[in-house]
Fold each of these.
Amino acid sequence: MVTGGVSGRRWLPPVVGIVLVVVVALGVSVVGWLLAVGASLLAG
Amino acid sequence: MTGRSVLFRPDGDDLRVIGFYLGKIASGVALMIALPVPLAVVLGEWNAATALAAGAGIAAAFGQLTEWRLRTRAELSWAHGTVVVALAWLVGSFLAAVPFFLSGHVSTFLDAWFEAMSGLTTSGLSVVEDLDHLSYSIRFYRQLTQFVGGQGVVIVMLAVFAAGPGSGTLYVAEGREEQLVPNVTRTAKLIFRIALAYLVVGTVALAVALWVAGIGGWRGLWHALGLFFAGFDTGGFSPMSQSIGYYHSATVEAVIAVLMVAGSLAFMLHYLLWTGRHRELVRNLETRTLAVTLVGFSTLTLYGLATSGAYTEATGLFRKGFFTLLSAHTGTGYGVNSGTLYVTDWGVLAPAALVIVMAIGGMAGSTTGGIKAARLGLMAKGLVQDIRRLLLPESALVVARYHSGRRRILRTPELRVAIMLVLLFLATYLAGTVVALAYGSWEFTEAMFESVSATANVGLSVGIVAPDMPALLQATYLVQMWVGRLEFVAVLALAGYVTALLRGRI
């Protein structure tokens, strides 16, 4: 049934939203790591 | 009648409405204090159970008596709403302080009130003595204050209890930018639903990371919940006195970094992402502003640390320098080393960058404090607009646009409000600095660091905040945390209301 199918997947957008936030946060850490590597090269 | 004054004197009915809603909020605070009582009983921590039960009893008695005596169906006006919110955070934190006071780990009631205010405002500055030996249940309660305060004491009341007519004013007065949906109670419940989803995901992730770090079983779950409460709500209280440094785990730090970033995003952004509007992430004025400030000040911090010789290896720079910067920028306040190092070993550039990002904070409508990326972004847009006006012909119509949920045009009134709030934040940062300097015991950098940390509800400390700190300075920081959390409006409205009550006009 179409209605049932749609309501059955109501959890999907929030899960995608959380995954996206986690990916962004990990991306922030990757940027931080690259900057740390750059700074250590500068110091070394 | 002179033109400068407005005839307005709050009467008995006004005070009745304010008192009634304060009673409701006190009942909510009682519920929060009562939550860890079963944990205390299960663990056999009878002193803690008594302290929590007494605190809950006092708050419930105050709340129920006030509600019963002042019951009214009158609608909340704007003035009522702002006054209720300003008072709710004072009265709520005062009541929430009782278990800390009775725990025996603070010397005075001011210490206990400071701890409760720091918890509820998600600041994270602490004056508890011998934290590591405080009972599990009181430490759990301490972490819980950050979750409840981060969501918003009034939001909790709206989500748990039925909202009364006009309660939307409470929502806005508590420093929330916009409602997610037109109905304020639905908005409150949506905010809670988002937080609960992260609670499940974040606690499981932290429990696994702690298990990897060697802390398993119920203790692992207790640490995980506590760290989640203060991490996602950008609070900064840690169950242990060494903060995150206690765990010596890169995995724990990685999970907490994700939670801090998630917590610094506006609930509106979370809601838009939940409803499939993913492009908002790259178009939003605040995410763009934060991307610029984060990369810029991370570069400054890491360069400063590397050139001063504090850390020269990439691992140390990342795990100490970048983590601390992220903790400061998101307004969390979790630390991975002793705070005194920031002023003794970190050179000049890194502490300066930390102070600036603490002052900025995260996104408006999130649990972070400080100036907020939105206001910084609006000011930058306004500046560019003015420069274009100067360069283009006089007849040219210069319009600045930005994206926040939808495409918007920058208007002078909102720019004026943004500038005014930035100035108020800067003045408060400076005021706290001057009070600390008056004692003659600390350098300007230290005084500024602590003042910004308190006002922007961050919680990183260079050591001024301590159990034996001067009472007047402690009271100053307490007020700064309160004023900063409410972003001045409600507190200024309260001041105006009291003036009107005494003088019969504003």
Note: The radius of gyration of chain B is 22 Å.
Amino acid sequence: MNGVWDVLWLPFAEFAFMRRALVAALALSLSAAPLGVFLTLKRMSLLGDALSHSILPGVALGFWLGGLSLGAMALGGVAAGLAVVALAAAVSRSTVLREDASLAALYLLALALGVVLISRQGTQLDLLHILFGSALGVDREGLLLVAGVASVSLLAMAVLYRGWALEAFDPVFVAAHSPLQRLRPWVWHQSFLLLVVVNLVAGFQTLGTLMAVGLMMLPAVSARLWSERLSAQLPIASLQAALASTSGLLLSYHFDTPSGPTIIGCAGGLYGLSLLLSPRGWWGQRRTRHRTA
Amino acid sequence: MNLTPTTHPLRRLLLTTAALWALALPAAHAQSTPKIAVTASFSILGDIVRVVGLERVQVSSLVGPNEDAHIFEPRPAHAKTVLGSQLVVTNGLGFEPWAAKLIRSAGYHGATVVATQGVQARTMKAEHGHGGSHQEADPHAWQNPLNVVVYARNIAAALSRLDPAGAAQYQANAQAYAQELQALDAWAEQQFGAIPKDKRKVITSHDAFGYLAARYGLTFLAPKGLNTEAEPSAKQVALLIRQIQREKIRAVFIENMNSPALLAQLAQDAGTTVGPSLYADALSAPEQPGATYVQMMRHNIAQLVEGMKRN
């Protein structure tokens, strides 16, 4: 019993950096994973990846103007991400192009702009290390940022949940019956994207790009295999993200592997298990087929 | 040979004055004798070429001050620089894997020289990606001033082949530089020698200091591997914090182009603070304290000694 306790608890008891990494990852699990479920519902699963590239010019500009300040870089990142999302929405509303096509075009342009901005700064710094965080290097400031963003996101989700759900399942119905009809359905969509951008940027700045996108999407995808009800999928996604964060950190500690990839690997393991064993995965589908046959 | 290799302070003064004139009046000199265009792969090499060639050469460095040679990506302007030069100087030992490709793709057929030729190379464990590691040559040979004597000699020989008229001067310059480097080495030995051997321990975010450590009996501990891209594991960070606390290391330094966040956080957890910048792979900007190779080494050594005194 003592051995189990040592393995699971001692790393966190002894080292502050482990505690900070865990708390930041858990906060992100609470807010980002449910947002990921909505993204998969809206068939925008790749948005996180696109956004991770489009925030680069903003982060670079923030770094340029404010130096190595988390606030300046995060603000710049949010501004760039929102600009790309808003532009994509505007393009898709006024032309025949769909939103994903406009996003693909715009994030590439933003990425290119970001690289140019960075090379203009004279020094060719090791970008990913300077501009983005890493799971083991979470500081007080980063922790406050993630925790603040997670709290605001959870509140917003509670308030906007019904609108988002309706909009995701049946945008036409929302357009016709929205209680706030003057607001237009795209307001729901944009408020949702705003939260996605803010969550991703907070994740990038504290934990790194891989962690932010990985914790948002992988648990969300596997949560959809466990239940068909959205209200169940959201907590299942958070739970899986939290489980992956904790076990990933412990594995990284005991087996000497890089933390970010290990945490995402654990989320991947849960995804694999879900694919095989969940009611809506391989095993479940086989059983239903047998029953109906 | 009227310039015999003796240590005469007056001659060093003359050389320094010549260097100053070369800096101050490049246009006037360009008119009198056509300069040899030399391209160095990175800023430290560029400085050594400048010292050896003085007013007879025009040096450009591909990877400039404060830039990271590990992640350098050549641009068309760099190919143009290579094409426009008569000699390309690289460090070798795998420091600039992009250089051979750049020389080939630019269609450069002029002279090349590998500055570390004849240097006793050290090997070190290199982490590759996640988990894998193997022994490979440590390219940061310039961290031992005595190796730079070899660098200067190689560069002088290469320049002499291109410009036989200046051969005597290149030899003399390299010789004078060798004396300056030996003085630097003696000073470093005396500085580090004043610190008890078990206190000569330093933590830095990039282990580029293998040659320095071997020369002066120092121990460098790093949270990261040889390359900048390897991400550390929680275990490594934990072991390092324990080690700092156990061995009471207060000398913690960030190298000039790596991620400060992780190390600053780690130092704080272990109850110490982070020292000023060390310049490992690149010179600093001209107005900063590591603008030439010798200045860079003096700055690094002084900071390291200062940190170790707190151990």
Note: Confidence is low (pLDDT under 50) at residues 1-7, 24-31, 224-229 of chain B.
Amino acid sequence: MNGSGKRIRRLTVTAMLTAVALVLFVIEAQIPPLVAIPGIKMGLANIVTLVAMKLMSKKDAAVVLLLRVVLGSIFAGQAVSFLYSFSGGIMCFAVMCAVSLILSDKQLWAVSVFGAVAHNAGQLSVAALMLGKYVWGYAPVLLLSSVVTGVFTGLCAQLLLSRFKKIRVYLGD
Amino acid sequence: MSSQESENKKNKIKIPTAALIAFFAAVVSICAALLFFADGGDGQKIAVITIDGEEVERIDLGSVTEGYCIDIGDSNTAFVEHDKISMHSANCPDGLCVKQGAISSGLVPIVCLPNHVIIRIEDETSEQFDAVT
């Protein structure tokens, strides 16, 4: 494939993944929370970030993530939720990039867990800045939930990637 | 094949999956144990209510005999009972703070994120915890 074809393909796939992430994000916001504690959620949109990271590149995954966070808070959030989404997303992405260097593709679920924990840590830091240090009392609850949801979303991403491999979609450099 | 795979092959550090599972299992059980067993000491329980980090109310829950409601700003009301406190109503969109129910220990606070309200309980155990950390 020539250069411009590749670029177009990359643009379309980025747009498609962003759309999928956004839909997951908006749908998830409509589902009543499983546990009545702020900050606990499935994090389904992170499946797409993980898939983008492995299917394309880290840079493309960052683009998908940032677009999803910005568009997500326009479609589904309030003004403050952008700050939480953004800080969580950045932390999550940075940690996932770092741990994916030492973990194999088969251990993607663990990458997702570390990401989920980092996501909550980022959100708690912003909450602590805005509301005071006592929100750190949520840390054990959030740590517990993020390990569980991280395993789930990570396994979803792994399953998806194995399907993608079967239909030979590959968009890396 | 892919840059990702060659990246992994080049890498010398290998972390066994069993180690990862053991690590996460340990984290989960420590958190669960902390939440399960730390259900309040016998010390005096004082509910502290803050808005935007500023203390607006301080109630000795041990001396409460009959439940009653109090207003927190114009946005929330709390229900105070003997040794426990819950959010009774809130005008936030999700109402998670109300659904959380009553708390009776200093471990987990009730936070109403949209309204910046925190209800926490101070007891002897949590003061010791603060002193250590």
Note: The interface with chain A takes residues 2-5, 7-8, 11, 13-15, 17, 20, 24, 27-28, 31-32, 34-35, 50, 52-53, 93-94, 96-97, 99-101, 106-109, 111, 113-114, 116, 118, 120 of chain B (CB under 8 Å).
